[in-house]
Amino acid sequence: MVDAVSLAPEFALILVTATVLGYIVRRIGQPVLIGHIATGLVLGPVVLGVVTQTELIEVMAELGLGFLLFLIGLQMRIEEIRDILGPIVNLTILGTIAQTALALAVAWVLGFGPTETLIIGLASVFGATPVIVKVLTDNDQFDTLPARIDIGALVLQNIYLVVLLTVLGAESLSSPLEIALSIGTVLVLMAVIGVFSYVSARYVLPAFVASIADNREALFVVAIAWAFLFIAGSERLDLSLEMGAFIAGISLAQVPQSIELSEWISPITDFFMLVFFASIGLQLAPEHLLAYWREALVASVVLMVANFLVVLVLIYREGFSMETSFVGSLNMVQVSEFSLVLGALAVAQGFIEPGILGYLSLVAIVTMSLSTPLLNANYDLYRRAEPYLSKLEPTDRRDADIDIHRNHAVVVGHDELTWWALPMLAKRFDRIVVVDRNPANIDEHEQADYSFIYGDAKHGEIRKAAAIERAAFVLSSSVQTEINEIILEDAPDSAMVFVEADTPENAAILYDAGADYVILGDALAGERTNEYLKLYLYDREFFTDIVRPRLARIRERAGGAHGKHGGVGDE
Amino acid sequence: MSDLITAIALIFGGAALLLVVADRFDLPAIPIYILAGVIVGPFVVETQTLALELAQWGIVFLAFVFGVRIEPGRLDAVARDSYPIALVQLVVVGALGYAIGLGLGFGPLDAFYFAVAAALSSSLVGLELMERDVRRNFINARLAESIHFVQDVIAVVLLLLLGAAAFTPEAIQTQLAYGTLVLFGGVFVRRYLFSVFRQLSGGVEELLLLTSLSTLMGFVALAELLGVSIVVGAFAAGLAVASDFTENAEMLNGIDSLTTFFAAIFFVSLGTLVAVPTTTVIALAVVLFVLTVVITPLATIVMTLREGYGTRTASQVGFDLDQVSELALIIAIEAFVLGRIAPELFEAIVLAGGATMISSSFTHRHHDRLWRALIDRDRFRSIKTRDKHASHVREGIADHVILVGFGEQGRTTAGEETEAVGDACADFGIELAVIDNDPEAIALAETQYDNYVFGDILDPRTWEQANHESARLVVSTIADREISEAVLDLTTDIDTMLTAADSDAALSLLERGAFYVNVPDVLAAEQLAEYIEGSLSEADYCDALREQNISELQNRIT
Fold first, then answer.
1. Angle CA(B333)–CA(B335)–CA(B340) in degrees, nearest 5?
2. What is the pLDDT of residue B293?
3. Percentage of chain A exceeding pLDDT 90
């Protein structure tokens, strides 16, 4: 029993410090993640020494990892990278091997012992998702080919890292036999969980999720319960909880609601991961952090350059243009955030001393902060290097076109209004994307010949997936003014945007926000009813003749004509 | 550590299973969490301390979100009516609860907790149940929302007072002073600082979410420092965070998702604190149940009628308040943690909370049957109403048109609203009678027409007033199935022109005998077809359309 209603002060301190540092790193153009790592260093023994690791912080950090892996699994939608899957698989396998070899070599040259060298080598995989995603999104490069290659490679690399995490979690790594044995056990257990998750993803989850899909809260709680079912299960089997969370995520990733779900899970993940990154710093005494600072600096610079060249060659090898290879490789010149996860685990397992974690932290901070300006300038740097590099590139080499939405029509919400409008838009636009959050319509959408995204347009992920920022026409039948305002903000100036409003006041707000036309359903209906009323009062029979065709159309739509498109009004 | 993970797995696993079942019956989530807690309780005893620590976060986030969601001025229009209703209901049920509490042999403090649990109702459950009406801005929803708001504010004040170290005048004065300080701090930050944060963050949403959480932490720490309940601190933090959705969408999403997560843990943990109930606990819970489910609605209905609203509106509002408040549960758990409440009373409050939240969804679903039973008995005829929402219909009116609903669509249908449409009935020398249950709408009708009836659309007496037997046509502009069906039942021999939300509903109304049914979306789609065609083929078409619509809009905005 707690003695009074109160909250952990150490956590409050972490949160506030992380916020302040967040503003500072933001000012100097660095990703917020750097601020989180710095938070631990500032509050921990390295600088102020005011916060020590408590049980609560450990639990929260652990939960953060669980949620992170769940989220990563949830975002593993294989079909999104299917068109470049082959090259990405090659890139990931060869890249990971090359990166590990490089890191091993550097660690060995720098004079680390055999176990340290091994851990450092394994932990120094390159490419940090939070940094890359953040910077590229800010620079509007998220849908470029290099970004797609990078994200795809990181997704696959995560699978490897999760396995690695599980292996490192094993009792001891003293002999090759034990390592092999533990890898074997891990693989077998993974297979067991994997089969369970595959079977449920295939036969159970979609129907189950669909049955509660209109209940946001139930869906959310079920998703979390699903994650913890696997987490607790893996723990029972002595696997890492990360493994369980990851597999739980993958099995949920294949339902149409997964983008929506990841929007709900990611704030919780950020919340707990903040504690995780801060807790790394809390573990480090000053002497640990700086134990190998020279080595860390040397390794950072050497690895950044070497990795850049290796990945450049590997991407180019897969037949992409020099520009794509250059930018794609440059984006990935920072150590993965998993480096810290693996390092922290290795310390906990007693494989390495905290000094090595200090080394890994320094490498992470240095490579992440150095890489941010490089990412911001990625295409500029290519322009400068182009005169030299283009000599190496045969003139006929061109990237395959990737499939992205552009100059398309986006329809938000699916009701009778948009149902009648769709066939007309189909005549005008090659491509239509429908965003709808009503689970009852999923079947209808999946059979239709437009692209369909399940989710709420108020979520950034969903709007990004619909590529509203590149649309030529947007029609929103949502009457939520705030959603329409966001849509208007996202849509390019050149796009024509039609939105719906429920009151004249809101309609005025939307016109102010730049809407081209605001549909005021009640007013339109009122005008028409007024007309009908006059017709009726003029002559009842005449009115009956006039409305007959419209009644027929209502019957057609209601009488099982869902999914087929009728013509739009001819009067 | 792994104990805690097992506990969380159990908490969410239990909640998930029950929620899936509850979803079939459209039950609200909170009582389901509590029930899940009661069931998994025995399995998580060892980790209760840690789970309770996480549950604290749930309390804090609930209060925080309550503060964030407050939109000053939104419900001002009904405040004059709803505040007296809320206050009288609180005083009546509170006093009765207190007396019963003393009668049951509790000391003054326990009796007070008992009264609080009986008097306050849950805005989370009540407004979730009424969500459809809230969205359509119906009068009953606006009244209920405003009453819930008053109750929630009073709950925060009670949390502040009951958190006092001792119940002496000095201690309470200090509490009040510090509490006011904290709340003003929240308003100050919203006014002057939050926009600065926004600017500094450069629009990075992650940073804004972090800022709002830090604000929460800061205010909670401040509250702790001053010895004020952390719930008050969290509420003040909510006031401090600007809730402009367009600018802070991701931040609000983040707050929402964290709240759902921690609130689930909180409510389940609350359930785990309930052991197998003893007879005393059950008896107490039953008394509380009756007070909440019978007395609160009755008091509210009487008061709402006195304010001059129709019986259906009054009964809808009354039966939206028939559950124990989540804030009353928070008040109870704070008292429990401080050892200030009798454990049996605490358990009874939690049980009654869960039970009333479930029963509330039943009274909501079968509301119209309840309401009919109430008006059939005619108990409420004798209540004197403040006769401010008058009706007026010319004696002997006949061959007239009855217009049901005087909202946007209704006003346009009648005409005169804009220059584009003329007054439909006047052109033919036919009289029009307007029916609406919203005082604001009737006040508007009064300025334009001679005949208007303020009353419930489902109530036959409203129709008698409008002399519907001799009407020529009934036009309903309300796209609500219940109302449309009632109109059909009441007007068997008269032509009806109804409104339906979609073609399915329209078809079923046509089959039940409607003369004609409008579907606004279909009408809008026809118009839209023309506009889209035009905009995509002609360069200036769209600009002209926009100009024209904006100028028409000026006329509509009153």
1. 145
2. 92
3. 5
Tell me which chain B residues have a C-beta less than 8 angstroms from the C-beta of A557.
Answer: 503, 522
Q: Which residue of A has its CA nearest to B418?
A: A527
Average pLDDT over residues A266-281: 85
Determine, for residues B542 and A532 on separate chains, whether the beta-carbon distance falls below 8 Å.
no
Q: Is residue B53 within 8 Å of A59, Cβ to Cβ?
A: no
CB-CB under 8 Å, A32 with B210: yes
Q: Is B105 left (phi over 0), alpha (psi -120 to 50) or beta?
A: left
Q: Which of B255, B477, B503 sits opposite A416 (nearest CB)?
A: B503
Mean pLDDT throughout A307-323?
Answer: 88
**pLDDT band at residue B95, thresholds of 50, 70 and 90?**
very high
Q: How far is A52 from chain B (nearest CA, A)?
A: 17
Q: What's the full length of chain B, in residues?
A: 558
Identify the pLDDT of residue A291.
80
> Which amino acid, residue B148?
H
Q: How far is B298 from chain A (nearest CA, A)?
A: 32
Residue A366 has pLDDT above 50, yes or no: yes
Using the predicted structure, report yes or no on whether residue A565 has a pLDDT greater than 60.
no
Instruction: Name the residue facing A537 among B261, B413, B428 (closest C-beta).
Output: B428
Strand partners, B403: B434, B475
CA distance B504 to chain A (A): 5
Q: Which residues of A touch B337 (CB under 8 A)?
A: 1-5
Instruction: Collect all residues with Cβ–Cβ distance below 8 Å to A192 and sequence separation of at least 6.
Output: A237
The predicted complex's ipTM stands at 0.81
User: What type of residue sits at position B294?
Assistant: V
Question: Which residue is closest to A530 within chain B, CA to CA?
Answer: B413
CA–CA dist A103, A117 (Å, integer)? 8
Chain B residues touching A57 at Cβ < 8 A:
none
User: Are the beta carbons of A421 and B504 separated by less than 8 Å?
Assistant: no
Tokens 């407004």 correspond to: B127
Q: Nearest chain A Cα to B223, which residue?
A: A6
Which helix (H) or strand (E) element contains residue B378?
none
Angstroms from B340 CA to nearest CA on chain A: 12
Say whether pLDDT at A569 is over 50.
Answer: no
Task: Give A191→chain B minimum CA distance, Å.
Answer: 22
CA B407 to chain centre: 21
> DSSP readout, A113-162?
-HHHHHHHHHH--B--HHHHHHHHHHTT-TTSHHHHHHHHHHHHHHHHHH
Pairwise CB contact (< 8 Å): A8 & B53? yes
**Residue A567 DSSP symbol:** P
pLDDT tier at A566, thresholds 50, 70, 90: very low
Of the pLDDT bands very low, low, confident and very high (cuts 50, 70, 90), residue A561 is very low
Contact between A132 and A149 (Cβ < 8 Å): no
Residue B92 token pair: 């009546």
pLDDT for residue A5: 43
pLDDT at B46: 67
Any idea of the CA torsion for A384, A388, A392, A397, to the nearest 10 degrees? 30
CB contact under 8 A, A533 and B401: yes
The answer to whether the CB of B258 falls within 8 A of the CB of A268 is: yes
The verdict on a CB contact (< 8 Å) between B224 and A568 is no
Q: A346-349: long-range contacts (C-beta < 8 A, 24 or more apart)?
A: A346/A119, A346/A123, A346/A168, A347/A283, A349/A168, A349/A169
Average pLDDT over residues A150-160: 82
Query: What would the mean pLDDT of B259-278 be, rounded to a whole number?
Result: 85
How confident is the model over A240-252, as a mean pLDDT? 80
Number of A/B CB contacts below 8 angstroms equals 359
Flag if B521 and A415 touch (Cβ within 8 Å): yes
Chain A partners within 8 Å of B221 (Cβ): 9, 12
